[in-house]
Write a structure and sequence with these properties.
Elements lengths: L1 E4 L5 E4 L3 H14 L26 H19 L3 H4 L2 H6 L4 H4 L31 E5 L18 E7 L4 E6 L2 E6 L3 E3 L16 E5 L18 E6 L5 E6 L2 E6 L3 E3 L6 H7 L26 H35 L11 H16 L1
Antiparallel strand pairs: 1-2, 3-4, 3-7, 4-5, 5-6, 8-9, 8-12, 9-10, 10-11
Length: 356
């Protein structure tokens, strides 16, 4: 929400989504390539604006309010040819949607309430700009806590969980939606998952699961495994010895973390569907998200484990060599301390030489 003050001293309130602001920013850079630093970075005067990301923490979304304030302040202080160009003026003009702002039921601003009931009003977060995603297929809800979507629906994401269930709102409806059914409005280049970490992160299996597809892995409760790739749809790639496969992240717990009743309650829910199981996908993007095969995971994982074992062996061999060398060689003898008479004689000879 922006309060725009015009030259005739009138003040108007306009509403713009962050994704729309970012598209405006990209178009402005294309209009002024010199001032945007595309030709020479030293000539850049157009302010920076971070791109929307597929996975955002609550902290980063809270920071957007101050970021947009600084961005707009820098924007209106640019040279006249930029600050008063038609592109900027038209973007901040009042539209028909601005005259009919969203009602309270549509939640134009979302506040995150503290889970701890002992906390007060001061602990409630400031307004958070929600990201908008598009449904790539129809999803029918299976419980009262879920929300069904139709292909093409634009939903605002309130909370993104590593379990693969995202809490969304669509007009006056709210509920959990599988992340696999959603895609970013900006494009797949903003939707990159984390890179694989073949070093692995130790987790404990808190709920067993039997593989339903060839690229999944069967594990029992209590087993210790390594997570090598965390994916947004809630299906992580894990490693058990030299075997890899997809496993529901909601059934895992990081080694050393405390188990809570909330986590146990979450595990009672079913695992979210994988994107590979969704039929009739209709994406607005020509480019699909990259997908790594399990053969590639296993091959890279084996290579990493072999190099790790080799490094460990070399380190142990090097340590043993040093020990043998120290034990085999005789230590140099410590020379005896000279007597007091010898010290006095040497001092007197040195004094004589200085006098001469």
């Amino acid at each position: 929400m922006f309060l725009v003050k015009w030259q005739d001293l009138t003040e108007k309130v306009v509403y713009r989504k962050f994704t729309e602001i970012y598209e405006f920013h990209k178009a402005l850079k294309e209009m002024f390539p010199i001032e945007s630093g595309d030709i020479n970075i030293e000539n850049r005067i157009i302010p920076h604006l971070p791109a929307p990301r597929w996975f955002d923490s609550h902290r980063s979304t809270q920071n957007r309010q101050s970021t947009l304030s600084e961005y707009c302040s820098a924007l209106i202080n640019l040279p006249r040819k930029i600050s008063q160009c038609a592109h900027i003026l038209n973007f901040f003009k009042v539209r028909s949607d601005d005259l009919n702002p969203p009602t309270a039921s549509q939640k134009p601003e979302t506040f995150l309430m503290p889970k701890d009931s002992k906390k007060g009003i001061a602990d409630i977060t400031g307004p958070i700009i929600l990201q908008t995603y598009r449904a790539i297929a129809d999803y029918e809800k299976n419980s009262t806590t879920e929300m069904g979507v139709k292909t093409g629906d634009a939903v605002d994401v309130v909370e993104k969980s590593e379990s693969g269930w995202w809490f969304c709102q669509l007009k006056n409806k709210r509920g959990w939606v599988p992340a696999a059914y959603l895609e970013p409005m900006e494009g797949p280049d903003e939707a990159e998952d984390q890179e694989p970490n073949y070093a692995g992160e130790l987790h404990i299996v808190r709920k067993g699961y039997t593989a339903a597809q060839e690229d999944e892995i069967t594990l029992k409760e209590g087993e210790t495994i390594e997570v090598i790739h965390k994916l947004l749809d809630g299906w992580w790639v894990v490693r058990k010895d030299e075997i890899t496969g997809y496993y529901p992240s909601m059934y895992l717990q990081k080694l050393g973390e405390e188990n809570t009743p909330e986590k146990n309650q979450l595990r009672n829910r079913g695992a979210p569907p994988r994107r590979s199981t969704i039929r009739n996908i209709k994406s607005i993007h020509n480019q699909n998200r990259k997908q790594i095969s399990q053969d590639t995971y296993r091959r890279n994982s084996v290579k990493y484990m072999q190099s790790r074992r080799k490094l460990k062996t070399n380190f142990l061999n090097k340590g043993n060599t040093i020990v043998e060398k120290d034990e085999g060689e005789a230590q140099p003898a410590v020379p005896p301390r000279p007597s007091k008479d010898l010290i006095l004689i040497r001092c007197s000879e040195s004094t004589k030489s200085k006098i001469k």
